[in-house]
Amino acid sequence: MSADRLRYVYAVTRPFDGVLPEGVQGIDGEPPRLLRHGDLIAVTGAVPAEDFDEAPLRARLEDLDWLAATARAHDAVVAALSTVTCPLPLRLATVCRDDSGVRRLLEEGHERFVRALQRLDGRVEWGVKVYAEPGAGAGAEDAPPAAPGAGGSGRDYLRRRLEARRSREGDWERADALCRRLHAELSGLAEAATVHRPQDARLSGAAGVNVLNAAYLVDRTRSQGFVELVEAVSEPGVRVELTGPWAPYSFAGIAEEGPVESDAVAAGTREAGR
Amino acid sequence: MTIPAPPPAPAPLAERRIALVDLLDRLLAGGVVLSGDLTLRIADVDLVRVDLKALISSVGENVGSPWEGET
Fold this sequence. Notes:
The complex is a heterodimer of chains A (274) and B (71).
Chain A: E1 5-13, E2 33-37, E3 40-48, H1 49-52, H2 54-60, H3 64-82, E4 88-89, E5 95-96, H4 99-108, H5 110-120, E6 123-132, H6 136-141, H7 154-189, E7 192-195, H8 201-204, E8 209-219, H9 223-231, E9 238-246, H10 249-252, H11 263-273
Antiparallel strand pairs in A: 1-3, 1-4, 1-5, 2-3, 6-8, 6-9, 7-8
Chain B: H1 20-29, H2 47-62
């Protein structure tokens, strides 16, 4: 039976004192197990080989329902760990054959894990997304477009159209300026910042156009100020969304490198605006 | 007056129901990527393609575009 169970590894941590919240379930509904090797702990769970062996896994990753359930279970375990320690999350679907494979993983990556854990200790990740909603502001303030036949000459109509277009262009410029200003301010409070690809509205279902999709690594003690700064943003035609606190997913892989250049923001904004 | 104990919360994690796209931004692009005797070198998989393919095919079926009129 154990032959067709593989070892999924959610995260690596240092030994910790607290207890995981009760009822935490990983993939397959099983509570995560802690496997200690030296001064590191791998947080693992048994998963079926029929899903997680190489070939099925490749196929499963393209099944959205499966991907979503797996991602949520992975995050549930990492979030639970975050209540007791500062975990180093691993990439989705990191799977070893057995416990000795997990031990080798800890052994071989030891130095890298220790360095990353040190760098991420006491820090959380916040996600900040900025959406441009061109025309939304203007539509709310100005009179709604006149109903057909409600009067007004053709010239008035053209003037209104022109104003609406200018207003939309102004919205784009405001969104762009806000992204730059906000990203600079938030980066100032953060240990590191990175920019994800803007989200496609078809996938997120969010209104507006996502022009900034950034993540910030912030010390827990500075998080309140960070959140207040984000929540204070108010700009017509622009919507700002905060997510988190997350375990430092976006900073685990680049834990050994310096902060990401903030130039990427400008490029991302331009691209999204197309 | 006694109120029966509320039934167990339907989903304890409901309050932190996270948008799948936000989660996938982090889980498919973030996290430590390891090599070793893993079943699948996840870095080898073209995850950008995976997530977009999976998501778009699912979106295509049941979500009409609310932005059709947009120019």
